[in-house]
Amino acid sequence: MIAIQNLKVEFSAKSLFDNVSYVINPRDRIALVGKNGAGKSTMLKIIAGLQLPTSGGVAVPSGVTIGYLPQQMKLADETTLLQEVRKTFSHIDDMQKRLDCLNTQLSERTDYESDAYRRIIDEVSLLTENLAMEQSENHEAEMERTLIGLGFLRSDFNRPTAEFSGGWRMRVEIAKLLLRHPDLLLLDEPTNHLDIESIQWLEQFLATKAKAVVLVSHDRAFIDNVTNRTIEISCGKIYDYAVNYSKFVELRRERIEQQTRAYLNQQKEIADTEAFIERFRYKATKAVQVQSRMKQLAKIERIEIDEVDNSRLSLRFPPAPRSGDYPVIADNVGKAYGDHQVFANATFTIRRGEKVAFVGKNGEGKSTLVKCIMGEIPFTGVLKIGHNVQIGYFAQNQAQMLDESLTVFDTIDHVATGDIRTKIRDLLGAFMFGGEASDKKVKVLSGGEKTRLAMIKLLLQPVNLLILDEPTNHLDMRTKDILKQAIKDFNGTVIVVSHDREFLDGLVEKVYEFGGGKVRECLGGIYEFLEKKKISSLQELELSKSPGGGDRLVEKTPKSPSGNAPVTDRSSEEQQKNAPTLSYAEQRERDKMLKRAAKKVQEAEAAVAKAEEDIAQIEQRIANGEADGDIFELHQAKTRALETAMSLWELAEQEHSDLKARFGKQ
User: Fold this and answer.
1) Over the stretch 18-73, which tens digit does the pLDDT of each residue have?
2) Residue 407: CB partners within 8 Å, gap ≥ 6?
3) In angstroms, rounded to a whole number, what is the distance separating the alpha carbons of residues 67 and 85?
4) Rounded to the nearest 5 degrees, what angle is found at the Cα of 383, between the Cα atoms of 378 and 384?
5) Which end of the chain has fewer CB atoms within 10 angstroms, the N or the C?
6) Using an 8 Å Cβ cutoff, are 228 and 244 in contact?
7) What is the per-residue pLDDT across 188-232, written as a single tens digit (0 to 9) for each?
8) Beta strand pairing call for 212-216 and 229-234
9) Residue burial 592-613, b: 16+ Cβ < 10 Å; e: rest
10) Alpha carbon distance 495, 371 (integer Å)
């Protein structure tokens, strides 16, 4: 469909990529990957026609439409949300005006046999068909579905766009872009301003309704769920694989390993041949063999190993000074802006060493609560920061707060104090700003490079409570993996505000969900939280369809005073007797839910047993005098793991009991 031909781009006599060629086919879902600064955003701009390459070009067939979503854009503020989105269909009004104009011409002309008259007739026929096709579609319903899928409420539709934050206004542009249904969608970091639910909706849309897609994203789960082809930009070349990103990583590694083995075998063969030639070069009796070997050597097609970018970020947070046992204690904390209550009655405790996530839709109060903890805004209730807590805060817009007129070196030199000032070059080198890169102006850095630079500033002083608000925005996947490992190794307390499921997986042991004006605690990792939320949503859906209508809360089964058995009464028994008979499909869904719940209980019980066994083995080692310096820390970690496993077991058991009680199953 679209051909990229011999593309070459240079900046300041340095080649970004050279002689790059590939084709984008009609149903391709392409992930464009590579390290920060490799040229991914530049490639999208060239395909969109917004930037010219040094040489080569992009061949776009006539009639093919391209939609482009940049990382940052300036939006208009003069319209309401619906009015702004309706601009997507302004071409229908243009078509109608053109048709009216042509009909007026036809009524005034009398040259019925002329070529000009026939051309007008042909255009009128084409416009009439196109208008009929456009008007047959319910654009209002499509607009509503798209906006709600991206997280907007119906009450937002008539609000001025000026009232929305930058992230929400970016969603407006995503909605307009999707509603145009272009033949090729170019998306540069589309998930940066979306919450988890909106990301899942966008995944579904791109996978089922979009035509061709080329996207730049560092959300591994998102691109794995959407794409079927991966193009990596590395060292000025591209590597093209017809698989999603995770499979690409495996195939890429296997390819390099195979090339390396073949290269080493060939080098051994070449060395042996050269040794034979050198040994018998001057012996007349071996002249024929030597000549044969020389010809053989000349014919060998030398194997080359694909060039791999091995530059790596070296990131490790300084050891955390010891804080009090409870760095953050919230008691009935609330925040309102005028009549709008963002959240209320938030009550929770974060213990020393815990790593927790704040998740939820945009605008539900995640960053607001972070600002309350930082003391940046007033709030109601009690929020206590523990003894000797030293906070390191990475704000969502931290990268945008950098002074773009400074160089990379000067940015760090202005905030560094003490002995660290003598090691700035080493520090910058560890963050891949070595050599000439340290003299770059901040304004020419990519989004990921700015984020890395902002991260350096966070490392300049030791802290024991890290608060990271969307730290992975604009970071490439390798850098995200390194950041994730650094946070896991950090011995302090961590609060992460993020929508990146892959980043949070295995990193946090507790999730706080923001929504509906409340803050709910969920023990376990991000995928346990999402699975529990999915089941809860299914239960709410079934309840909303039950006789009597209306949404009802899922109530826990009441216990007897002894706490041993559920309390039953005649009214509940009568309700079970009078309950409507389930259809076959509903029975199957009920049985599936019960089986899943029972399986989760079994898995949770196994996890508890494993944690108890690990602790018993460690305690036996201590009793036998085998203790080393790390064994007590290991015992503490396993004890925390047991507590988490017990909490997950309690949740799974309660969920299973609730389902059995609701369905009347024993």
Assistant:
1) 888 999 998 899 999 887 777 888 899 999 988 888 888 899 888 888 989 887 66
2) 438, 439, 440, 441, 442
3) 15
4) 130
5) C
6) yes
7) 888 877 777 788 888 888 888 888 999 998 788 888 889 999 998
8) unpaired
9) ebbeebeebbeebeebbeebee
10) 12
